[in-house]
Amino acid sequence: MIGQFGPEGGTLSCEDSDVIVEIPPGAIPPDRRDQLIIARICLCPDSIGPKLTDPDSLWLSPLVDLESPGLQRFDKNVLIKIPHRAQVQPGWTFSVHYTDPTTDTKSNWQTDTTRATVDQLPKAATFLPSKYTDTQAIWNCVEQKWHSRTEEKASNDVTRLTFSVDEKYVNISTSHFSQYVCSGCSKTHPLNLEAVVFWQHYKVKGLDQIDLTVYIIDIIKDTRKASVESNERSSKLAGAQSGMTPYSSLSLEYTSSEASSLVIFVDEECMDDDWKWSLKSYNGRLPAERKMSVESAIRGCCSSNMSTREMFTFVPRDPSEHGQLSFFQAMIGIKQLNLQDVVMKMPILVTAPLTKGCGAAGATNTDYTSSEEPISDVQIDFVVERLSSRKWRLLYRKLMGKGADISIEHIQHRDPSDSREQIHSALVGWRSSKGRMATVEKLITALQQVELRDIAEELQSFCKGLPE
Q: Percent helix, strand and coil across the chain, each rounded to 5?
């Protein structure tokens, strides 16, 4: 975000971001009528921010880099409102990490600095640091335990940074600009998250197909706009019908010493004799579910990964009746298990209207071949059995690109001694991350590029022998 302000002050904000900068009257000197205020927002603080050393700590906010070119200090404190994902309750210790505001905090960010005035809300963008970004900045920290009463905590340095925490924001008051990011430490890690399902309808070899992609993300608007919705736009097939459910609130927490699982599944109760669809993914086997630890799901929402997601694919039960179908409907469920006890269960009803019936809609859709379908579980298992524990990281970096190393750390943390499970988690995570773009062809190409041509050729031969 970028805006121009004068001595009268104003507010820097936009509809695609929850970050707000409030500049009071008199904060900008009278001789600076067109002071630029620049805010850059990074959703992956673990890539350029300080390192969290406490195993009970989580990132609770994006990293915000603020600049006021030519103005080192404001005459009055400005208020920086940074959104967080914590459920505020006793047990949290909140921390604000910030760089030295008296030094040059400019980073080599990839950004569009198109100007906007206070009367024109600037467009939000989320930024990844370029590979040349200086990550050696010295970070300071001020922390406080949360209490039910409003309380401000001040830093000890001369910049006099103070902050308080409410239900949605970490409110930072300061006379200087630098980089800011918020973390929290708790034994139970209660977070405010949300779930959403995107659907896509298209044809494969003349037959209708529906993909449901389930996301579990945090409640910060920047994540929705720059991560999830952007990913869905880029992965949408040409000519396909698409839509989404409303975002549903989801509260999760975990204790490190207790076993707790999160399950994303297709509710079998919707699959009665009158249901016109059948499950294609998971090789049609039930129960169709993805199970993971709550800790890994929560840490995924607090990291540079695009949170937790899973995709389910459906086709008409009777292909001869596909022209008579006018809508698709299924129930997706999310539940949390502590040991075997269900402590939370949330249903999400997905209804996809097929405007003119599947047959008519399909006439305008592109007819996609099976080579453009996501890689299957069988194909993933085939590669897992052949990929060396020394080579999978190289392949994963080639498949995922930027941010892969942070995901590798999480994968290794979840299964430190089981290399087979690490490889399986990496390939399933790639498929979940890229959706319909995670094809066998992409994997074969990546294998060839990292000098694993034998596995690439074996996979190619194996796929030719699979039934259509």
A: 25, 35, 40
Rounded Cα gap, residues 468 and 463, in angstroms: 10
What residue ranges do the domains of the chain occupy?
2-185, 188-368, 369-468
Domain 188-368 part of CATH 2.40.128? no
Distance CA 428, CA 424 (A): 6
* Domain 369-468, CATH homologous superfamily name and number: Death Domain, Fas (1.10.533.10)
Instruction: Annotate 181-243 with DSSP letters as a single string.
Output: EEEEE-SS--EEEEEEEEEEEEEETTEEEEEEEEEEEES-HHHIIIIIHHHHHHHPPTT-EEE
pTM: 0.73
Choose the CATH number for 2-185 among 1.10.1840.10, 3.30.2400.10, 3.40.50.2000, 2.60.220.30. 2.60.220.30
Highest-scoring range by mean pLDDT, 51-55, 101-105, 163-167, 377-381: 163-167
* 406 backbone φψ class: left, alpha, beta (φ>0; ψ -120 to 50): alpha
Q: What is the pLDDT of residues 100-145, one digit of tens each?
A: 775 543 443 333 333 333 333 334 444 434 333 444 568 888 887 7
